[in-house]
Every structure is written in structure tokens, then in C-alpha cells.
Write a structure and sequence with these properties.
Oligomer: homodimer
CATH class of chain A: Alpha Beta
Strand content of chain A: 25-35%
Shape of chain A: globular
Number of helices of chain A: 10
Number of strands of chain A: 15
Largest interface: A-B, 29 and 29 residues
Distance between the termini of chain A: 39 Å
Chain lengths: 303, 303
Amino acid sequence: MPNSLPHVVGLGQCSWDILGHIEQFPAVDAKTELLDVVEQGGGPVATALVALARLGCHATMLGTIGNDPYGESITQGLEAESVDCKLLQKDPRGKSQCAFIAVEADTGRRNIFWTRGEKRPFVLGAEEKATISHADFLHLDGLDEAASYQAATCARERGVPTMLDGGTCRDGTMRLLPLIDHLVVSEKFARQFCDGDNPEAALEQLSSFGASSVTVTCGADGSWTKGGNGTTFFQPAFSVKAIDTTGCGDVFHGGYLFGLLHNWSLKKTVRFSAACAALKTRAMGGRTAIPVIGEVEDFLKRN
Amino acid sequence: MPNSLPHVVGLGQCSWDILGHIEQFPAVDAKTELLDVVEQGGGPVATALVALARLGCHATMLGTIGNDPYGESITQGLEAESVDCKLLQKDPRGKSQCAFIAVEADTGRRNIFWTRGEKRPFVLGAEEKATISHADFLHLDGLDEAASYQAATCARERGVPTMLDGGTCRDGTMRLLPLIDHLVVSEKFARQFCDGDNPEAALEQLSSFGASSVTVTCGADGSWTKGGNGTTFFQPAFSVKAIDTTGCGDVFHGGYLFGLLHNWSLKKTVRFSAACAALKTRAMGGRTAIPVIGEVEDFLKRN
């Protein structure tokens, strides 16, 4: 039976996150007991796919895990959210990506320590290329530079639109940028393209690579977007009492893809993304409070 | 066949430690990629027992683990060091103690985030009491207050000497102190017993609980000891280029127990302990570089 839901293929990071609340960030050489601990899957692409799955899309994860308990947990976490993991590649001698995230209890501010693990790059074979070819969207985070480039090239050849979640502009990212249709990047990424705090200048620079929409996300300070028609707009972040902001950016991307899949205007799409990200902050962990579609609609009516 | 090696029973924390080098401690709300990651067992009592096992003693671990991969790893790590884990208790619904430790690459300075996990207290039954009764020493860290008190009471009744590794003086610690023969505590613990920086005043206060030796360890600043005959002495820390100081205190306790088991003088015992701790700093992780007896002897000849 063909799946009639919109289908997003994501290629990128899937991580195992260990999060703990702390009373306050410790002085160096001090010992801090965590107030509580939450463990769950994370990673920019993986969590964006979970958001899409909760919103009612079909999502397929392409990525690499190690042959370790974290890898098992990563897979189980995605499968529990109905993300298709058939093409997840396990490196038999590899170690999975993981992160430790200390969250300050009163403020929700975080320190993130992460490792990409030790594993071979993702291998893009015939089955993976066929899956991308039949998808409605390809979502990338660019960390696995060779595989990201191959996947984006495949998508471009088959007319499948692409989004890049840019956190840090690395060596291979520049080669990837001309293959990206929708570029949604962090403030840190944008700063690598302009001097100082000038979101509009960054949008201008980033648009020159050819994407039809470019958005720079600035956390609680909102986001700046430039569309294909040249108009630029600002979307404030919704004001919420954040328990934990882990994964907000990832969920924003999930919402953005959802809007694009439904051919919404960019303004509607970005406002929807901001609502998804705001709702996510309701609980500890990057995925716990990712909303379903009804919750986002209710939130948007009230805000 | 009876085991003729000196036998130390330890009751206390056994943890799974995840350690990562960082270039420098991150600003709040920043993301830091770890330069490398080491995972291994830790915990004050568990690592002291590993030190004793490497030095050639028989060591038995009494403690609790959760029913999770960390618990499995904790057990495997101890068994690989020949620490007897037959009386380790697994809480079927419990979560193991674990820690994340960020180590600054150039300085070896650390931030330790830890959780005691969620598990039932240790149950001291007939077999556990018999094991303590036949031991040459009981080593405690006092975190599990009820079990520590019961174990120390049992040891006192049977004439088995006791050592407490005091990191933080908690509510239940005060009740435990009169049952301790050798009190080897951190600077932080000692500060709870005197105003400001006065190790000799702290030794005086701590001795009043009845221990025949009291030592306050001050990391790279050395240690202060007061013996049963009232004499007080200072042992400087050996000057080493530390890769990682995780577990130094635990290994110091292992060395101290080794000296006491061999009826060495307190001065010889503490110097030996300081050498064990210094050698431990040669590698990342609380246990990697714990020395065997020949290494300590060579080091002491050279220093």
C-alpha cells in the first residue's frame, strides 16, 4: 500500500542525549549533583524527523550509529516515534554520537558537551538514492560532508527539494550550499557570512548561493527570513517560560518542512515553526514536548 | 582454597563515568565538541578497590547498580580488575549511578556532573555481614547512610577496622564517625568542621570522634595527617604533569588501606598513597593509570 503522507528523508546526526538539571553552573573543579536525569534521542536531523512524524508526516532517517547501547537506544527512540530506521547504518566497530547537556533549573540555560562518536561515514548506495528520489523533501545537517553532498546532488537531479540545518559552516558546507533550496541556519552560522550583528546582511550573503528561502534563527530573539521574491521579514519567538530549550532549533526545522510540504506562505510557515519550537520548551529533553498538529493550531489561535 | 591475600570489603558508590577532554570550559549556552571520550567505572569505594586489587589485595564490592547498560558496564569493569562482585545488588527497576566529567585539555581541571541514580538502598543481610566479619578491612564512603552505619556497626562488633572516605559530611555521616578507625576526608569535608583554612584545627576536631588516624587531602596542595599518638604531619603531593585528576582521591584511599594492611607507619603509608595518586594522573579516567606495586616502588625511589 503506497504511503500517501508527505515523506521527508533526513540524512544527518542521530545522537543519544543525557540531560541533567543543575541548580547553577559549577565553578571549575567543582562537583555538581544533577537534580534529575533524562535520557533520550537527539540530533538536528533525527529530532526534526520526530517533529514531522508527530505532525503526521512519513519520515525516514539516513544516518550512522555505533555498535553500542547508545546506538540501540537511538534506534528504539526513533522507531517509537514511527520514524523509519531501515536505512540506518550500524558501524560494527563504531561508537555512537552522544551528548551531555547540563540545564540550569531556573533559567533553562544550557551547557552542551557532545561528541560525534567514532564511526565510518554514511554510505549512499542504490537503495538510499532511490529512497531520496521518491521523497517529497530531503533534510540535511551537513556534518557528514561527503554523504550530504552526494545526497543533495541526487535530490537536485531528481527534483527533490532540499533543506539544510546549518549550525556551523564547515569546510564541506560551502560545496553543499548551491544544492540547497531552503537554508535555515543558526545565528552562529550566519555570523560566518557577515560582520557583527546584521541579520539582513547575512540573509543577503546566504541568498547568493541560490536558496529560494533563507532563515536565520536567533533563539529567544526570533528569526529573520528572506524569501525568493526578495522580501525580508522578522518573526518574534513566542514568549514562553522555557523548561528546556534543547532541540528547539531542530523542531523549528521540522515545522518549517511541514509548512513547505503544505505549500504555505513563508510567513505562515515560519510562524508555525516558531510555535512548534515554543511548545517544545514545555519539558526537559529535545523530544518530550514536541507538539502534535492540534496543539500547534490551538497555540497559534491563542497567541 | 582460602585466599591468603589481605581482603578489603568496600561498601559504597560504584558509578559509570563518561569523561571527555575539552579545549576550554564553555560559556553558558554554548556547544562544545569533546576532543575524545573515555568511559569507565568510577566511584570512591569502587575505584579504591580497583587500586587495592592492582596492588595485589583481594577486594569485594558491596553496592547497588540499576538494571541498565551502565550497571552491566560497572560490573564488567570491576570484574575485569578481579574485584569480587558476587554481592553487588541489582535493583530490577533501578537506574545506576553515573557521571559526566569534562576535563580541560591543557590544565587537567574538571567539571564533574553526577547523579546517584535511582535505586533502592543496599540490603545488608547475613551473607554480607559474614563477608565483612571475615575481612581485614571495611572501606566506606557513607553515601548510603543506613547500610554504611549497619556495616560499620557489624565491623566494630567483629573487630574489623574501618576507613571512611569523606567527601561531603551529610546528615547520616555524624552517626557514622564514631565507628570509623581511619578517617581520610576531602578539604571540603574538613571545612565543615573548622572555620576557614586551618587543617590542623580540622584534624583536632575530626580526631575527637575517635579515629586512630585522620587525614585531610587537599589535592595538589598535599595532605595533613594526625596519628593516634597526637603527632601531626604534612605530606606534599608529588609534582606531576597531570593528564586527568579524576579518581586521585579514591586511589589515595586504596594506597592508604594498603599501607595499613601492611602495618606500615602512617608517614610511610601516606607517602605511598600520595605516590599512587600521582601515578594515577598519567592518563584519562579514574582507573586507566592506577599503578601496580612495582610502579609505586620505582616512583618512590625516584622521588
